[in-house]
Amino acid sequence: MASSSISNRPNGSVSSDQPTSPSSHGGSSSSTKARNPPFLPTPLEAAALLLYPILLTFGTLFSLLSPQVRNAPYFPALQAHSQDPSLSPSYFARKSNVFNVFFVKRGWGWISLAFFVFLFTHPAVRSAQQKTRGLIRWGLVTTWWVLVTQWCFGPALIDRSFLFTGGKCELAEAKLEVGADVTGKDFFTAVACKTAGGKWKGGHDISGHVFLLVLGSYFLLQEVGWVYLNHWQRRGAGGAIELRDERSVIMHDGAIKSAAVEGERDYSEGGDTARPRSAWEALALGGRLAGGVFLLSLWMILMTAIFFHTWIEKLTGLLVASAGLYAIYILPRFVPPLRAIVVKVPANLPELVRAKFNTAKANGDVNFYPTQVAVLKPGPVPFQLRFSPSLANKPKGPPPASNGPDKKTKPFNPFEDPPPTALISELPPGHRLVLNKFAVVPEHFLLITRAFKQQTHLLGAEDLAAAHACVRAYHDESSGGQELFVFFNSGEHSGASQPHRHLQLLPVAKMREGLDDGSGWTVLADRLVEGGGVKLPFATFAETIADDVGPEALREAYTRLYRKACAAVGWDENDLGDLASDEVPAKISYNLGMTRNSLVVCPRLAEGDAVRTSDGQEVGRLALNGTVLAGTALIKSEKEWDALRDNPGQLWGVLAKIGCNT
């Protein structure tokens, strides 16, 4: 908690919820190996891609040089050799071979099955975000498969290219000549033509087998290969392997960084039982199934290269598959908005925040104020009271910028262009994570909007989704499943100080530092959604939210709670207007609290009240912001500290003044 957290805020005080200011501390950066260009496959990816032209070239040469294949009758209309077992050059040259019938013809089903088993069973894929991003990529690759082979607003691209290059259905022409009731449009696809007994002849026929097998096998290689490699190297004995993930991405600011900053973390649990002892064990069930499908796909690519289609048809099948794969896997690396289909929290977020905070603290870019802490029990709920005398002397922020002697000054906005010392990470598409400059709780950080949005306007679905994504990431990526508490202050009585929209995030483990194990303190927001209910002297409205709640569902829950809060203050439902937009000013002052499984809104009527000694003398005023929904309060005066500890019931009286009666 910083001074924008629960605090006394005398007139003229500066809000603490600011990013760190630029620092004079610097250092030379060590030379690093040049990164792989984001617009090119990595060397490992290029080696994998090279497998396909090698297989196709080998198969084509084999078909030309092998007497058995060269002498077998070939029928261009069938794109195959004779299907007569006595004349066919090989079992695999017959379309009736079991691998063609039950594997290739159902190829996308096998690819999808292997992917889903891996996605939902592998120990390195545990978070909802990982699964969501994987499903989105599967959807994109599936869409490309459908457009090319099944349907593209009519005939598939394969059929369109065949007709465009002069292809036709011979049966259609014959029927038209004798006046049959049939039109050319009835045979715009190979399936329709062959079903009617026609021959699909004359045009360029992209090899659908090569397209499907290349697309599917490389999709599995991308989705399974990187996860497996990182899992084996980090969790198993594969650390000595020289193969490394060299993918790089272009960030929103133009910087080229390792894809690890946005990549998938290994979520497998600790302990000896979770550590794979061999490369085979690291694959797990899903990886083994995917590996089997991948190898069988390579074998069938080779069989297709030897026995089916012309070399140009196989080449175009490879090129069309490669085009889709490039658009889905390479293009987003150098076009940042394409990586923002869902909110993507940086990998290793807890470690990233911790490292950034420790560096900034050591360099003087963050002001950290140690505190004393006590747990008071003024009522049925324990409250955490923190005392930080040095916070009263915190430095003031920079003066407002001036546009000239005759022009109005522009208010200083610490979130407009956060300095590198404050910036933790971009959070595309519309947010940033920055350090809080004045921290009472270590590793206090902020979620701010990139573009200026009003703090007093309603939150949007993207704001709530970004905050909850950070909460989930903390739980999924930290040992022991650590939690974050998120709070938001809006309105004059809420403790808000900065007009630029921002939500504040506190690691719960850091909020517990200094407390005894038997203190009984837990985050209040979670208590409010647990069974049995909690009796407070101020009104709150809470809902349970699921781990994998979507942005729109989260926004709907927020809107329901906001409506109830407005009703508690006295607003009529009909006067609230359209709440669908995040550009609508809030009608009330309120605080919002969020944890992984709770969302709470508290309407505010006052920021706080006086603190008095036992003889009635006022010694200060206790002001509370959104951290009240965590069950915490912050003071800066020793007299207030003593008065509240001597009479904990007085805290309950202050809480009764900040909101609506219950």
UniProtKB/TrEMBL annotation:
Region (Disordered) location: 1-36, 390-417
Domain Ap4A phosphorylase 1/2 N-terminal span(s) in chain numbering: 346-511
UniProt-annotated catalytic positions: 209, 309
Subcellular location: Endoplasmic reticulum membrane
UniProt-listed Gene3D superfamilies: 3.30.428.70
Domain annotation ATP adenylyltransferase C-terminal: ranges: 535-660
Record's compositionally biased regions (Low complexity): 13-32
Classification via InterPro entries: Ap4A_phos1/2, Ap4A_phos1/2-like, Ap4A_phos1/2_N, ATP_adenylylTrfase_C, FIT, HIT-like_sf, SCS3
Membrane topology type: Multi-pass membrane protein
Catalytic function, reaction form: (5Z,8Z,11Z,14Z)-eicosatetraenoyl-CoA + H2O = S-(5Z,8Z,11Z,14Z-eicosatetraenoyl)-4'-phosphopantetheine + adenosine 3',5'-bisphosphate + 2 H(+); hexadecanoyl-CoA + H2O = S-hexadecanoyl-4'-phosphopantetheine + adenosine 3',5'-bisphosphate + 2 H(+); an acyl-CoA + H2O = an acyl-4'-phosphopantetheine + adenosine 3',5'-bisphosphate + 2 H(+); (9Z)-octadecenoyl-CoA + H2O = S-(9Z-octadecenoyl)-4'-phosphopantetheine + adenosine 3',5'-bisphosphate + 2 H(+)
Entry keywords, A to Z: Endoplasmic reticulum, Hydrolase, Lipid biosynthesis, Lipid metabolism, Membrane, Phospholipid biosynthesis, Phospholipid metabolism, Transmembrane, Transmembrane helix
GO MF term list: ATP binding; ATP:ADP adenylyltransferase activity; coenzyme A diphosphatase activity
Residues that span the membrane, as ranges: 44-65, 107-125, 137-158, 210-229, 285-309
Polar residues composition bias: residue spans: 1-12
Gene Ontology annotations for the cellular component aspect, listed alphabetically: endoplasmic reticulum membrane
Any one GO BP annotation for this protein: nucleotide metabolic process
EC number: 3.6.1.-
Record SUPFAM superfamilies: HIT-like (SSF54197)
Function recorded in the entry: Fatty acyl-coenzyme A (CoA) diphosphatase that hydrolyzes fatty acyl-CoA to yield acyl-4'-phosphopantetheine and adenosine 3',5'-bisphosphate. Preferentially hydrolyzes unsaturated long-chain acyl-CoA substrates in the endoplasmic reticulum (ER) lumen. This catalytic activity is required for maintaining ER structure and for lipid droplets (LDs) biogenesis, which are lipid storage organelles involved in maintaining lipid and energy homeostasis. May directly bind to diacylglycerol (DAGs) and triacylglycerol, which is also important for LD biogenesis.
Family assignment from sequence similarity: Belongs to the FIT family. Fungal FIT2B/SCS3 subfamily.
The protein's name: Acyl-coenzyme A diphosphatase SCS3
Source species of the chain: Phomopsis amygdali (Fusicoccum amygdali)
Lineage: Eukaryota, Fungi, Dikarya, Ascomycota, Pezizomycotina
Gene for this chain: SCS3
